[in-house]
Amino acid sequence: MSDKELNWKFVEDLVVESPEIVSARQHSLEQGIEAISPATGAQIAVVAAATAATNIVEIGTGLGVSGLWLLKGAPEAVLTSIDSELDYQQTARRAFAEAGIPAARTRLITGRARDVLPRMNEGSYDIVFIDADPQSVIEYVEHGLRLARVGGTVLVAHALWRDRVADPAQRDDTVADFRTLLSEIAGSPAVISALSPVGDGLLQLTKVAD
């Protein structure tokens, strides 16, 4: 194992997850659903706390791991989470309840994100977290930047996509889309961006202009 890999493993192993997040992660593993890594969860919780978020949109509910982390960082926030799988959301709802999160603080919308996002209010959210269909990542980021307020942040999980984005030999469409997104964002005056290698990559875009 290289020094870099040892560092990444150390960072992941350092995170202490709550029993509710541990349970949601275990359910995700059992269902074959890839949840964000513990260190990614800790990082998005820090962003939520630093932003003092009160309104959060999540694209991709999964079984609730990322939602629990976001609400840990922003304990007064309302989380609106979109997923096309009703069964996933029912499981996530139970995870939120077990964590003591009031039902009024989670709004779960079952449907395709590309159908739901255009109906949501522009500039109304502190954080938009994206962990869904990677083939639609550019479209989701465009919606996310529209929905985020100035000073809000769009977070994109799996931005290094299976460690393939950094490998020039990888040329499939999903990798190409992530590379296009990263290169365009790097030069945009509308955001301040950072790409963290934590987990499978976390792209952070703070909106500084409309």
Give an account of the 3D structure.
This protein has 210 residues and is an alpha/beta fold. It has a single domain (3-207), classed as Rossmann fold (3-Layer(aba) Sandwich), CATH 3.40.50.150. It has helices at 3-14, 19-31, 38-51, 65-73, 86-98, 113-116, 137-147, 173-186, and strands at 55-59, 78-83, 106-110, 125-130, 148-157, 191-196, 202-207. Helix 2 packs antiparallel against helix 5 and helix 3 runs parallel beside helix 4 (65-73). The termini are far apart. The mean pLDDT is 96.
How is this fold's topology laid out?
Elements: H1 3-14, H2 19-31, H3 38-51, E1 55-59, H4 65-73, E2 78-83, H5 86-98, E3 106-110, H6 113-116, E4 125-130, H7 137-147, E5 148-157, H8 173-186, E6 191-196, E7 202-207
Parallel strand pairs: 1-2, 1-4, 2-3, 4-5
Antiparallel strand pairs: 5-7, 6-7
Helix pairs in contact: 2-5, 3-4
Notable features of this structure?
210 residues, 21% strand, globular
Task: State the helical fraction.
Answer: 40-55%
Largest sheet: 7 strands, mixed
Beginning-to-end CA distance, first to last residue: 44 Å
Ranges where pLDDT stays below 50 over 5 or more residues in a row are: none
Would you tell me the overall average pLDDT?
96
Element-level helix/strand string: HHHEHEHEHEHEHEE
CATH architecture term:
3-Layer(aba) Sandwich
Quantity of strands, as a count: 7
Determine the structural class based on helices, strands and strand pairing: alpha/beta
